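User: I've been going back and forth on whether these two constructs are worth ordering. Before I decide, could you fold them both?

Assistant: Sure. I'll take them in the order you sent them. The first construct and its structure tokens:
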Amino acid sequence: MLSALLLAHSAQAAVVGRTVPATALTESRVAGQPEWLAYLARSKALMATDKATFFAEKPNGPAPVPTAYSAPAKTMPLSRDPAWYASAEARHVADVIVSFQTPAGGWSKSSPRDAGLRRPGQFYLLGRTPTPGDSNWGWVGTFDNDATTTEMAFLARVAAQAPGAEGDAYRKSFLRGLDYVFNAQFPTGGWPQVYPLMGGYHDAITYNDDAIGSITRLLADVARGQGDYAFVPPALRERARQAEARAIECILATQVRVEGRPTVWGQQHDPLTLAPVGARNYEPASLASAESAGMLVYLMSIESPSPQVVAAIEAGAAWFKASALRDKAWQRSAEGSALVDKPGAPPLWARYYSLSTGLPIFGDRDLSIHDDVSEISVERRNGYSWFNTGSQRALDEYRTWSARSKP
């Protein structure tokens, strides 16, 4: 059904809108709301401390700057045999992690954690060394690209293999990271992409790249207080449980309703209104398939889910079934990637779906939004993941969850 509608719309391709950038979280937006004003004051104070601490450092000679990008999973693996986390190699990675923790308690992203320890004057973020007058102070602490949550999980794993005093530094760093997570949580229950806040869409509730999913899963593990997280004090376990509960409320509240019917989630949502918002020029406010698949998988992992959570799962699964493109494939090409007919191909989902029509939409760098992917620039067509088959994981998990949950 959706494939037929898509074909009809493609025959009359059009610019269907323009991406509206997200609004930063500011004092003027939260005037008269003490809880929000306190949140912003805390964010500003932590950023000021981050800056002051860094600029007060006196490096001995030029500080080294890491030059190689690295995905967290490569230098902070979480799937090794437990004994490996007691090795000198794992301890070195943990030491590097501790050395790069910001004063606020978080970590930057995309930086290797298996190289040298951070030296005084070396910036927390890959490839940058700001000056005191530099206004571009961002990504210093973030949940993007699995940052912060991966560092914390790795520290907990190493600490579990160092139960004595030799593991105290790792446990202390983990607990500082946990405090960072608590500080960063919005009063409405979600988390920004970057904290302390840096403005723009980075201030939005961020489902992109499974940021909130990774935080909530970590909090659930901490709340259980088992295995790697048995060292966390009971009071902090309870705080983690409460933070996860507030996050679930936020996830349920941000599930988008179209004509009164619950569907899925946006890539990011305004922290105050909870409505989906745009991010980069080519990322419009929309329903986001990959991020929503991650949210459904997380909700299905909740033990003893409430009726509200069950209803959200059922609605999300129904949306994925109805929104799949059949007998289509995304064919990559240097001349211009394209959506092509391919009978028998696995179900395919567009990255973004219109909040009004429910049909796939595609953004370009000039802020224009199109209903036909072939109408956007070749550079954006080839440089972004406009379609995915990975959302099938949500339906696969749903089948298992449904069989387990229903008599």
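The second construct, handled the same way:
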Amino acid sequence: MTDVFEVDRYDAAGRLGELEVPRAGVTVETPALLPVINPHLQTVTPAQLESEFGAEILITNSYVLYGSEDLREPVEEQGLHDLLDFSGAIVTDSGSFQLAEYGEIDVTTEEILDFQRRIGSDIGTPVDIPTPPDASREQAEDELGTTQDRLATAAEVETGDMLVNAPVQGSTYTDLREEAGAHAAESGLDVFPVGAVVPMMNEYRYAELADVVAAAKRGLPESAPVHLFGAGHPMMFALAVALGCDLFDSAAYAIYARDDRYMTVRTTEHLEDLDYFPCSCPVCTSHTPAEVRSLGADERERLLAEHNLHVSYGELRTIKQAIRRGDLLELVEARARGHPAMLDGYRALLDHAAQLEETDPVSKDTFFHLSGESARRPEVVRHRQRLDRLDPRGDSVLLTEGDAHEDFDECWNVLPPFGPFPRELADGYPLTAEVPERLDAPAYEAAAAGVARLVDAHSDTEFTLAHDDWPASALAGVPDRVDLWNLRGGE
């Protein structure tokens, strides 16, 4: 694996980074959107993407160019950058999408990579096998083996300074995805797309998507730039970035526009259903829905495509600022509340909190506890782990949500969802958290788990927990040998 990717800042597994693309002579800031360009039909031109949207990178299909009577000769003569009129980085797909759709293509990995190199692609792609979700394990293993053989072939092809993708396949089998990630990393290739996930996104299977991406990331080294193939809707960008994805390609902006569909960061609306545009992009501030509906098909499609791009690029800017500020997971949760399937995805993301914690910064801006899911965040996992390094002083310790008490050798604070901690740590992150007065049960249960971890590690110490009327489900998690005081006068 070449050293082309550098991370500047993390939040959870999300990161701000720089992908160096030597053949294009550019460095792409990530997370980055790669608009898909159909070389035969450009609703928004590459030059417009560059000048109006600030696009640094895009993707087009080399197999379409390879098989085109109209474009193959011009692209071989002019080169891809001149043909598309784009000075940034250009990624080319290999025809694997057509393979998935139609069952066969008439090109080999050697042939398509050589073609991609000759036309001036900056990041090329071998012909991998995109195994769909729910395929049999036998099919997934067999097709993964074929993909891995083709990655080995790709590593032997002379590509000059063109970077090469190493797709990570494995269907919905997380162990195969992890294995595929490790194998791809050993291939010597450069960028690592997680493939065959579009069917999951089309079916709103965001929880499974989160598990698949997390598994692929476990196999890949942290220095690997990760592309989520086909992830084109802005509603799921924040979730995917929090999992550690860096690149997203979108044909959705144009496909949706063709069908009179209007993207938001929460959903997709039909133009015919809108009385107002809930957006402040140039398209939406210059037109009403009725005006756009009255236009001819081509102009209507162009305006909707431009709006969809504004929303997509705007969401990535929002995500980058959230990473910079350290509140990416708050943004993920806000987006998750827009759709039940996205909430499933967020909950699946938090199933991997220990994995996210490995790169999550130890200090950020204020932790906001927003729901029961907040009790499962990486910061809570880290605090619980830190308890193993903290030793209470004395034989009797009060763990309290209230004031200190002189009858004990030492008094520690307790703060849901984190649990117990020495009072001198109270001003450090994340214990300065903003917590609602009306907490839900999972916050108290998480705090009780912290109490249990501390108590179990110090069998010779007597503990008393002074709690502010915790629910029974939380108190059930406190070890029996802990004395309980209810600060509201119960027990």
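Notes on the second construct follow. DSSP finds 21 helices and 18 strands in the chain. The two ends are 61 Å apart (CA to CA).
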